Amino acid sequence: MAYVPPHMRKGSRVRSPTGEMAFLPRFRKSLDLGSPGQKPGCGYIKKFSYADNAITKWFAVGLNGLEVDLGNLVLQQAALEIIERQGGVKPFVLLNLSHHDDGKVNQDISRLPWKCISQRVLQDLIHCSEYVRNEIEGPNQNLKGIRSRLVARIGKIFFIPWKSCTPEEDLGKASVDEFYLGKLKKCFYTGVPASYVDAIVDEVVPKVGFEFRNLKDIYHVKLSDRSQQEAVFMCKCRILDNRLQFYKMEMTQVRHMVYNISCIEKNMDLRLMLSTKRTLTSLQDDEMDSIRNLIASSVLCLSSRGGLRWPYGKATSSDGRFSVIGVWHTICRVYESPLLYLKVRDADRYDFSTDIGETTREVNLSLKGLLSQLLEKVENDKVLTTLEDVLKLLWEHFLPSNAIQNLKDLP
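C-alpha cells predicted for DUF7903 domain-containing protein:
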C-alpha cells in the first residue's frame, strides 16, 4: 500500500490556502524575534543560523519620516485560527489610530521615511558587511562558493503573546511602549495576498523598469544529518525526464544582520537582511551517493505538500544517517533592474517533523547594487545615497498605504 503523508490522511485538519487565504500564516510555536539566544524567525524553517556578531533589531517608522512614538500606537488582534490552535493565543498587529483624516501628513523633507530608515540602518549595515567580506575572503578548505545576499522582504510583523505575559484581553486596551512590546514575540511573515502580487507584476514592474530574466522551478529537499545534530542541508533539485535530479547542496544560510521595520500607516512591513550561504563540498563520494539515492527514491506527487512524497520507510538513507525533514517546491519569476533583482515566488512547503504545510506567495528584492558597494568598500556617503534611493523605491512602490477603513483586510 502506498504511503500517504499525514497531511493527506482522512480527517487531517491541514488545508491549503488559496487566493487571499494564502496570506494566513502557518506559524510555529517556537518562532520569535527575541533575545540573541533565540533569534528571530517565522514560517517554514524551525531554526536559523546566525553569525556570532549578528545584529537583529526592530523599530517602527511613520509616514512623517520620524520613528513612531510608541505611546500613540495600539495593538489590534488579528483573526488567525491556526495561531490560536497551536499556541493558545492570537497574534496582534501595530496600528496608529492618531491619523484618521484624509491621509495628509505634515512631512519635513529632511525626515522622509526612507531617510529615517537609512540613517538608522547604515552603520550596522557597514559593520556587518565587513564580517561578510572577511568570511568570503578567508580560507576554508571544507566550504567553497560562499555567496552573500542583501535582501529586502515584504511582509507583516505580528506580535504574539507569551502564555505567561499580560492577559490577551488586556493587550489592545492601552498604548504600547518598549517594555510592553518586549513581553511579546515578534514574527515577520513573508506571505502576501495574491492581489498584491498581481499589482506588483502588472503595475510596478513596467513602471519601475524591471525586465523579465527567467523562471526557476526548483524543488528543495531539507535533510538532517544524524552524525551532526546541528547540521541541516538543503538540496536543490530539478525535474529531468519526470524524475527528481539533485544538482546542488547548500548549508543553511547564516544571517549577519536583520532589521525588521514596522511601517505604520502601510499595509506591509519591511525586512532588511544581510546573509551568506555556502555550497557544501566536504562530503565523501559514498556520502553524496547516499544522498542522491535518497532523493532519487522520491515520488512526484502534485497533491502532496511540497510536491513530493517518499514510499513508506524510504525517507531515510539506507545507512540511516540522512533523513528528509522537509520539502519545498518553488516557482520563482525573476525580474532585473540596474540595482535590484525582484523575485516573485510561489512556494509550497511541508515540514515532516510537525506535519505542517503552507502555500504562500512572496515578494523579495535582492539589493545587488548596494551589496556590491558595501563589499568593495565604497565611501559611506555613496552607500548612503544608494540605500536611500533603494528604500525610496520600496516605500513608494512596494509598500501600499493603509486606510483605517481597510483594517479588516489585514491578515
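The longest helix spans residues 113-137.
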